[in-house]
Write a structure and sequence with these properties.
The protein is α+β, with helices and mostly antiparallel strands. The protein has helices spanning 6-14, 20-62, 78-87, 94-100, 114-125, 176-189, 197-229, and strands at 68-75, 105-111, 131-137, 150-159, 164-175. A 5-stranded mixed beta sheet has the order 1-2-5-4-3. A hairpin with a 4-residue loop joins strand 4 (150-159) and strand 5 (164-175). The longest helix has 43 residues, at 20-62. It starts with 5 loop residues before the first helix and ends with a helix.
């Protein structure tokens, strides 16, 4: 290719400045391997989602409530993947995506209470085909903006027709209030031309702390009611 590096090539591709022939060459070189890799991530994502569906079914039978409210899944967009590789000064290759991008496949588990998050995450990690790669506990150690969630990077095997292959999946655990705060914070934060930015950041942080306090109080009320029933 006439460009000096694939990163340079990619940057021009992303802003639609490449001639058609070079776009065609880029697609021929990267499209098929990329699609294959994404298919593997989808398989891994389905495997993890199935694990939570099984846990949900089991817990629904064993207890008077289900600590798992919802399970959501997503595959990171090609734009997000390429942006992340560029920020890391890495070439666009399937090898670099698999080696350096841990959150291509994502599962979000919404729980009722903070204690449920740790119970469900521990149940997942006890399964003998799950490898824990990384933990980021933003519940015990919230981000400066107030964001709370438990993030796990895990590896699980997918069974292809001719091999067993381990794939990484990011699993995020949130309570209902953590999830709605994060969703609304995202909508508000990325509004263009927002005035009084510092004031809004302060308000969002205060809302996160109120939501956290609400989680704790609701959990205490539930424990009290459960004890009364016994």
């Amino acid at each position: 290719m006439p460009l000096k590096t694939k990163n340079e090539h990619l940057e021009k591709l992303l802003i639609s400045q490449l001639p058609k022939q070079e776009v065609k060459e880029w697609l021929q070189e990267f499209s098929a391997p990329f699609k294959e890799l994404i298919a593997y991530y989808r398989c891994a994502m389905m495997e993890v989602a199935t694990k939570f569906n099984v846990l949900s079914e089991e817990l629904s039978l064993e207890y008077d409530r289900n600590p798992i409210e919802t399970v959501k899944s997503r595959i990171k967009s090609i734009e997000s993947i390429t942006d992340k590789l560029l920020r890391k000064n890495l070439e666009l290759t399937v090898e670099n995506i698999e080696k350096y991008i841990y959150d291509v496949a994502g599962i979000r588990v919404i729980c009722a209470f903070p204690a449920d998050i740790y119970a469900i995450s521990n149940a997942l990690l006890r399964q003998d085909d799950v490898r824990l790669i990384e933990v980021k506990d933003y519940i015990k150690n919230p981000k400066p903006n107030g964001y709370r969630s438990l993030h796990l990077i895990i590896e699980i095997p997918i069974f292809l027709h001719d091999e067993k292959r381990y794939m990484k999946v990011e699993v995020q655990f949130r309570t209902i209030s953590m999830d709605w705060w994060a969703s609304l914070e995202h909508k508000i934060k990325y509004k263009k031309d927002v005035a009084h930015h510092n004031l809004i950041e302060k308000e969002l942080l205060e809302c996160a702390e109120i939501a956290s306090d609400l989680d704790e109080r609701m959990e205490q009320i539930y424990k009290y009611v459960s004890t009364e029933k016994e």
